[in-house]
Write a structure and sequence with these properties.
6-stranded mixed β-sheet, alpha/beta, Rossmann fold, 4-stranded parallel β-sheet, binds 4'-deoxy-4'-aminopyridoxal-5'-phosphate, 10 helices, single chain, 2 domains, 10 strands
Length: 314
């Protein structure tokens, strides 16, 4: 008899649900891929398990080893779940601007949290550079979500096929923000092969430079914004810009207003970037789309409870 599945076996196979009220009257449905229902509350559980599986298969992890990751939170929570169950330690290096709620979730799961300044990638105190240095100095295993091929691969192997099957074999467009780029790259590669007419759309915060890199029609700006987990100044190593057909730029205000509508009108307890993705999805439908538009609902509202934008709206 198979042993009772662990919580890690509940990663993936997330529901796809209609965003029915907000999408009422549109020519094609908008469907939300409920990644916030993963056990750690985000899409990042998938890559956390995949990266640790890959390291174990290569014999890179001794029992009780320490994993280290540069994470704004969600990948850390996923890794903390995997580490707890598989018997590893986890250190997360996060920039100070990330929410206290994410930090609390990491601490609750037994991870060590190292908070560093909000420094640019060119600085030695940038969170990614600190994680790399700690790995080298202390012999910790750098899980390296921004560069690890298992990140896009797990989305190509699981998230993409799930979406296509849940849509009955036809997707009009797939809309996602980019943090590491793993989700859009993996799902994009799968859909370009198995449903070539599907459009792959980047949902990018106003202030991020990524939309400009997809299409120079968008301004080359590099400014601040409040939505967490997506956008950036430079394309991460795993991001394959060639799978992206177009970008939609969304303001913080639009994202947060839509996030609250998703909670109140759709019963979806999601974080800010889900609002960004749904605003981008509505624009995608308005531009014309042949088939359902799938949006990534990447994480859960409880990661943002202490944030002013949430406090002001709930
Ligand atoms: N984190 C959050 C909070 C997100 O909203 C998204 C995109 N929807 C991601 C991560 C996607 O991450 P990645 O590009 O690293 O796969």
């Amino acid at each position: 008899m198979n042993p009772t599945p662990s919580i890690l076996d509940r990663i993936g196979n997330t529901p796809l649900v209609p965003i029915a009220r907000i999408g009422a009257g549109l020519p094609v449905p908008i469907l939300g891929k409920c990644e916030f229902l993963n056990p750690g509350g985000s899409v990042k559980d998938r890559i956390a398990r995949a990266i640790v599986d890959d390291a174990e298969q290569r014999g890179l992890l001794q029992p009780g080893a320490t994993l280290v990751e540069a994470t704004a939170g969600n990948t850390g929570v996923g890794l903390a779940l995997v580490a707890a169950i598989r018997g590893y330690r986890l250190a997360c290096v996060m920039p100070a601007k990330m929410s206290a709620d994410k930090r609390s979730a990491l601490v609750a799961l037994g991870a060590e949290v190292i908070v560093v300044d909000n420094a640019p990638l060119s600085s030695p105190t940038n969170f990614r550079n600190v994680a790399r240095r700690l790995a080298a100095e202390r012999g910790w295993f750098l899980t390296d979500q921004f560069a690890h091929p298992a990140n896009p691969r797990i989305h190509e192997q699981t998230t993409g096929p799930e979406i296509l099957a849940q849509c009955g074999g036809k997707v009009g467009a797939f809309v996602s923000g980019v943090g590491t780029g793993g989700t859009i790259t993996g799902v994009g590669r799968f859909l370009k092969t198995h449903c070539p007419t599907a459009k792959i759309i980047l949902a990018d915060p106003v202030g991020s430079r990524l939309a400009h890199l997809v299409n120079a029609i968008h301004p080359d700006v590099d400014a601040g914004y409040q939505v967490e987990g997506i956008g950036g100044s430079e394309p991460p190593a795993v991001l394959d810009l060639s799978v992206i057909d177009a970008a939609e730029r969304v303001t913080d205000e639009e994202s947060f207003t839509m996030t609250c509508r998703l909670m109140r009108e759709e019963g979806l307890l999601v974080g800010g970037s889900s609002g960004t993705a749904v605003v981008a999805a509505l624009r995608t439908v308005a531009r014309g789309c042949d088939g359902p538009v799938v949006v990534v609902l990447a994480d859960s509202w409880d990661r943002y409870l202490s944030r002013p934008w949430m406090q002001q709206r709930i």
